[in-house]
Amino acid sequence: MPSLVLLALVGLAAQLVDGALGMAYGVTSTTLLLAIGTNPAAASATVHLAEIGTTLASGVSHWRFGNVDWKVVLRVGVPGAIGAFAGATFLSNLSTESAGPIMSFLLLALGIYLLVRFTFAGLRTDRQGLPLRKRFLTPLGLVAGFVDATGGGGWGPVGTPALLASGRLEPRKVVGSIDTSEFLVALAASLGFLFALGSQDIDVTWVLALLIGGVIAAPAAAWLVRRVPGRVLGSAVGGVIVLTNTRTIIRSDWVGWKGTPQEGLTLAVLALVWVAAVVWSVRAYRADLAAGRADVAGHGPADEAPADRTPVAGPTA
Question: How many domains, in total, are found in the chain?
């Protein structure tokens, strides 16, 4: 019973972060399952089965709060489902540990870009409202879906920063659309795992525990993303990506710092940098708000900064 309560709390916390930042549910939950000895395929299958319910609840919540662009959901979600099914089948038959650090380097570079971009330059508004094309969304969905299924998480870390970096969609709608489209990805990945593995390695009670925690947190997360300024949200997302993927890299065989003082020191320094970046973004947002240039909670065209106004680079003295 204590382990099930812990899983439910992990599901709640993971969904709260995922619903607010557009990522981290799969990574957080899968990490716990691997830590207690679950094999990678079964861990990913368990998480994706739980995500069928949590992403449905999250999608409904984001829809009710007006955080969803349905065109984006379909254009990225359908290819994402295809990629997820392929990734689940692949993982069930082959280990992908060697590919982890490579993908982490790519995500780390994108995370650094987002962290620097949103911290020092603010939210780009000159391209908001422009359409996101299929030639961008289709390959993004395929790659993100495949990574999500093989890594036990990755739909958000790949999809959210890519859409944020495009500058064409409000941050709240990036998060809401990615979370909503993840329902298709979770469903396809689960089917792939069930076809390849069967259900013998999946603990249904674990699935239910993660599901219950995630469903409870979904409405609160959808509300939270409406209250977080777009500039601050971008810095927060960038920091999550940098920390998560740096940890993966330094624990890989390429670096071999797992459990060493170097690992703790590196992550501690990055955490301090992340906190400082978020504080800087909050102060800069308040300065913009006082000057009438800030995006009010980063939501809605009427609330966005005018495209011909240059955002404040940093907090005023």
Answer: 1
